[in-house]
Amino acid sequence: MYEEEEEYFSEREFNEDLNAFNAMYRKDDFRFMDSDRLEALIDHFIISSNYKKAKWGVEMALSHFPFNTMFLLRKAQILSANGELKEALEILNELEKMDPTNLELVLTKASSFSQLRDSKNAIRYFNLALELADDMEKDEIYLDLAMEYNNVKDYKSAVKILKRAIAENPKNEVAVYEIAFCYDQLGEYKKAIKCFKDYIDENPYSFTAWYNLANAYLKVDNFEKAIWAYDYSIIINDDFPPAYFNLGNAYLSSSKPRKALECFEKCLEVEGEDALILSYMGECYEDLGELNLAMNCYNRSAILNPQLPEAWLGMGIVNDLEGKAEEAIKLVTKAIDLAPDNASFYHVLAGILEKEERMEDALEVYEKGVKLDDTNEDLALDYLKFLAGEAPYLVESIYESNPGFHNMPELDLIRVYAYYQNQEYTNAYLILDNIINTDADLAKKLFLHYPEAKNISGFRDRIEN
Predict the structure, then answer these.
(1) How far apart are CA 1 and CA 140, in angstroms?
(2) How many CB atoms lie within 10 A of CB 1?
């Protein structure tokens, strides 16, 4: 937006003018200076965010050059930077009447509207700026426009703009990150995967694209592909800790805790002791059955960051595995106190209480967890199984009252068994027949949840024939 001062002067000449200006500023005594030189000094102060000197300089400039529109524009820009947006827009509106196709003016007006959170007008002026800008000037404008669409949660429009940005400048990797953010907000991970794969076809050495492709695969639980893409991203750039951290997550989710540990240890080499990384390492050791090492990691994590709920949860789980139920309950409750909206934590606590046969307490905790998130399939499954064992007559009403349960086919198996336990055999067999017709392999899982169901001929004959 602003011209560099070297375009007008040698460094020595510029410094002489700067010293002269500073002397006048200190005395509040402005003497005449050539307008081009004065403009370069004002630009220097704006670039340096020294708005106090910039404002004084532009006021002095306008007292000598009252019809110089560039100084008026600079005044508007300074006012805008200082948050005096109404005053800035008044000047900009007058300047726009004289020169409506001035790109710098249009961008300043767009930025002022953005600061006012008037995204509608900001979008209008950023779009106008794109019409006025040449190809070399469009990169930042695309990003600014996309951010305005993000501000109004119009992520689809933001994606369209960012794709245009990448089409015109494939090296604009900031736009690649922003597209990843938009697809994440939309939950359109399959579209994100296609977008990044198409980009990689043309830009195979883009670390940013490989990394975001891996993140998208991770979001759809395609851990094998995520690991593949993270590996490529690390080959291109082996000095980016988040790639190792996410690769560790992918290995952990793939039941490869040893490989995950290698990744998390690499993160520690680069980042130093980090509470979150240590808590993930604790989970790896926990999966490996090395409970002393797991507890050590969780303890170190809690010491580094006592407010990290995952550390307390991990210690609680280890205590539960070691048969120390009361201590486990205290620690998991501490985790819940730190993260009261995390339904998974309630799931862990309910499971411990259930094992301890504290059924009323377990029921209360299950209910709290499901109320927070009825789309958590593991929680929903264990909650309905708990009800089927304690009060099978409640299963159907609880199922119906939680819409999130209706997208979980495996819950139908619990309904089948609950109906049978409640001696409603017709309903049990109707649901089971429907499962068999839809997904025969899923129906076989009834025997995994309830091995005793193999002894019931109505179930056995239907599933095994």
Answers:
(1) 11
(2) 14
